[in-house]
């Protein structure tokens, strides 16, 4: 994928941004581990490379709170959203969910649990393949599409304890099939079907989001364009011998418009930051977690919140998830919708274009790319 290229750094030089989420960096390792799948590092538990370790304040990653009953991560029934009798009530819930948490768990989304199991299964089967087989789909240096782990931009960088398969699944003419695993043999067909289901669902959600703001239902869709993209990322988090000092994914907010996360069915790990406090995202079997990304925060002029989240890992158990990131056509300029700007609600964000391109560079330095857009 071409959204991170070698000149991405330019953005950082020309516009230094405040460093808000970055913890103090540990010294980097000797560079040899670059490109080694995390899955293989696990074979040598005494020797977790320094680039992964949070020495300071690392303990406590796993003692986040469970949301309380009266302020729980909202659960929305998408069936009720589409029925005329219940839609209005559900839209109010949606508005509240995206304003306060920036995310919700979607149930009754129309996908069979057996199909979601299939999506999990093809991913699991791929990560279980011998390394030579997986390497056939390896990402290229400085590019993100394919199989691999973090791109290393600097020696200071703290790495995520995860291996991934990253695929641009839409628009269709931008699919690079050389990165799409051919084994297991139903990997591709499953990904295609999952993509189509989520493409349709993303339209439903973006329309509902507009309606919940009393806007015409296509208000967001018109801005993202006919050639909006979707990126699918399968995340594999191997067990880690020192889970209090390593993160599966460091704190970040997504650069998407919205993200669909299919969680592991048994192993928790995702945490969301709200009111400066980390909360565990509970597992609801067969729900999809839907969260706002930075580009909807911008378009909604801050009414919907792109939540900071992170992933903690586990000493004994592996965890697998699948994240689908929706993103506008990179040619489109993204800015707060006119109707959401007035004297009482001044414009909060500058226009951005091809936001995902700058996103990863910032992310890997522990910074929020959103800072580049805030006025
Ligand atoms: C991501 C992400 C969460 C998870 O991929 O951006 O936040 O639980 N993943 O895997
Ligand atoms: Ni994320």
Automatic annotation (TrEMBL):
The record's listing under Gene3D superfamilies reads: B-lactam Antibiotic, Isopenicillin N Synthase, Chain (2.60.120.330)
The alphabetized UniProt keywords are:
Iron, Metal-binding, Oxidoreductase, Vitamin C
Is Iron a UniProt keyword of this protein?
A: yes
All residue ranges annotated as the Fe2OG dioxygenase domain in the record: 228-328
One matching Pfam family: DIOX_N
InterPro entries assigned to the protein according to its UniProt record, in alphabetical order: DIOX_N, IPNS-like_FE2OG_OXY, IPNS-like_sf, Oxoglu/Fe-dep_dioxygenase_dom, Plant_2OG-oxidoreductases
Q: Which stretches does the entry tag as region Disordered?
A: 1-21
Iron is among the record's keywords: yes
Q: Name one GO molecular function term.
A: L-ascorbic acid binding
Q: Which PANTHER family does the UniProt entry name for this protein?
A: OXOGLUTARATE/IRON-DEPENDENT DIOXYGENASE
The entry's family comment says: Belongs to the iron/ascorbate-dependent oxidoreductase family.
**What's the name of the protein?**
Fe2OG dioxygenase domain-containing protein
According to its UniProt entry, this protein's organism is Vigna mungo (Black gram)
